[in-house]
Amino acid sequence: MSSFSSPKAKRPATGSNALQRQGSSLTQPASSLVPCPICGKSIAEWFVNNHLDNECTGMESVAESLSQQTSGKRKHGDTIDDFDDIDGSSVFQDNSDSYTDSSHRRSYVAPTTPTQFQQPSFQSRKDKANAAVQRSMPLAERARPISLDDYIGQKELVGPGGILRALVLQDTVPSIILWGPCGVGKTTLARIIAHSTKAQFREMGATTHGVADVRKAFDDAKTLFQMTRQRTIVFLDEIHRFTKAQQDIFLPFVEKGTITLIGATTENPSFRVNSALLSRCRVLTLDKLSLTDGMDRMIRRAARIKWRDILDMACAQMTETELATVNSTFGQNDQTIDEWVDAKTEPGAIKWLVDLSDGDGRSAINTLEIGIQGLSTIILSDDGGNDNNNHSQSEHEGGKQPLGVLEKLTASKLTGDAVKTAFQKTHLQYDRQGDEHYNLISALHKSVRGGDGDAALYWLGRMLVAGEEPLYIARRLVRMASEDIGMADSAALPLAVSTYQACQLIGMPECDVNLAHCVAYLAKAKKSVDVYYAYGQVKQTVSEEFAYPVPIHLRNAPTALMKDLGYGDEYKYNPHYPEGTKVDQEYLPKGLKKRKFLGEAPVMTLGKDGEWHMP
């Protein structure tokens, strides 16, 4: 007997008799529907056993019968009062197109009669409402890819031969942590996995769901697995927002395989994710997007969606003559429309979007949306002007006639200047407590050590422009002056200290030049790590070896008792000897008599194989 079977005596009646007795249940609200544990369909609660006994069939005929019985009772008005009548499938449809937005796949055919244009049918009103719902969604969400073939970036993971691609195609994705900056496709990758897997998928966020919500999701997954042996994939965005103690809830479910956890974080998992959980998950690093990753293709695809929105709205305002012109030119088919749309975004605008977004795909698309939206205001306005694109009413027929919708649409293009205006200022991803903070100061320190003044100034600028505290940088420069320059140029330390004091006195933005002065000097100065290495050896000796006593002749004797004990005896006072005389006297303990610290920094030598080797 299967786990879903029950004794016949306890089963509800099946067939037409059951439908007659349960007729009132057919008209219960949607809250009485439950998901089938096998096929996932929404089934009336009273019909679940019959549905399972019939191998997940039978409810369709019930629903069809119900639809026929109640079709005469439903009344449609001529207008849509809310979104209840909107066809959700047309808003979030899944078809052969790799992108979720496909409402524009049609030709722009002019209405045959004025009456048809002025009095649209209920269906046309419904289509308009669907389009309005789509346009209200963020462009970045609408342009999100749903297949690995259209996923941008992370070629080592999802490209041909990538390890994650193989796991997704085989539906064997293990528990993973996706670590990367904002806008590189962590959520998109999780949703692609959801689209490809046969497992149940739950998407949650640490900012909107608490531990109780996660625990309930895990318990539901456990129940589903026990009943149907179907796995559940739980995607938890911003997993680092759960404390390490709260993350302990994941451990038993991940370890037993009850769930497959996909966590997404912008913070270093080594510091923000429970070490026990890390040992049970694989961390995948996602890098910033770039032009070589195909970021320009991602932007152009998003631009097509937005420009088609504008084309739809513009066509609604065009005259029959303008609509006929559209149909006879670029509106003939999807290909001609796409070619026309691609020409509306200049290459310079694409380049600026890639450069200024700093590898953040969401930021690039959001800025693209703002730029194109600004043009749509001009195109769809009634003033007839188009000053932002160097076209004005006076340039059209001597200023006597306003520009038509089609003419404004044709003249409008997204330019590089429009993109820069939409960005307002360079967007830099920076967090004083995050990885980028330490990455940049490390790059500055290593550039100074390597003597590259240009690189050192660049990394200094990256930190200051992003809002780093100047005193933090100044403190690090004081450290560099002794660690990397040391005895080679003792003037470096006073300069670094003076720079710190200058930052205290005048602050930003004036002290940026003081910092640049110090950075350039330290980068160009001679380098010596002798003191730094020697003191490191001293610390190691002190921590690992015996605490040798101070030699008796080096001890101080402030009392008579100490003098009687021999403190300070046989000490040779160096100033009493002629200058330059080497006084024969030991200063280290006997156990360290021959130990050398200074001058012992290792220096690499060039081997016969042409490679540098550490001695």
List the helices and strands and how they pair.
Layout: H1 15-21, H2 23-26, E1 33-35, E2 42-44, H3 48-53, H4 59-70, H5 88-91, H6 114-118, H7 122-136, H8 139-142, H9 155-158, H10 163-169, E3 176-179, H11 186-196, E4 200-205, H12 211-228, E5 232-237, H13 250-256, E6 259-265, H14 269-272, H15 275-278, E7 282-285, H16 295-317, H17 320-328, H18 334-343, H19 347-356, H20 361-380, H21 405-411, H22 416-423, H23 435-449, H24 453-465, H25 470-485, H26 492-506, H27 512-524, H28 530-544, H29 560-564, E8 605-606, E9 612-613
Parallel strand pairs: 3-6, 3-7, 4-5, 5-6
Antiparallel strand pairs: 1-2, 8-9
Put the structure in a nutshell.
Helix content is 47%, strand content 6%. The protein is an alpha/beta fold.
Would you kindly provide a written description of the structure presented here, covering whatever features stand out?
It is a single chain. With 615 residues, the chain is an alpha/beta fold. Among the domains are: 153-285, P-loop containing nucleotide triphosphate hydrolases (Rossmann fold, 3-Layer(aba) Sandwich); 291-427, no CATH class; 435-528, Up-down Bundle (Zinc Finger, Delta Prime, domain 3). It contains 29 helices and nine strands. The strands form three sheets. A five-stranded parallel sheet has the order 4-5-6-3-7, sandwiched between helices. Strands 1-2 form a two-stranded antiparallel ribbon. A hairpin with a 6-residue loop joins β1 (33-35) and β2. α20 packs antiparallel against α21 and α20 (361-380) packs across α22. The N and C termini lie far apart (74 Å). The relative contact order is 0.05. The model is unreliable at 1-31, 61-123 and 384-398 (pLDDT under 50).
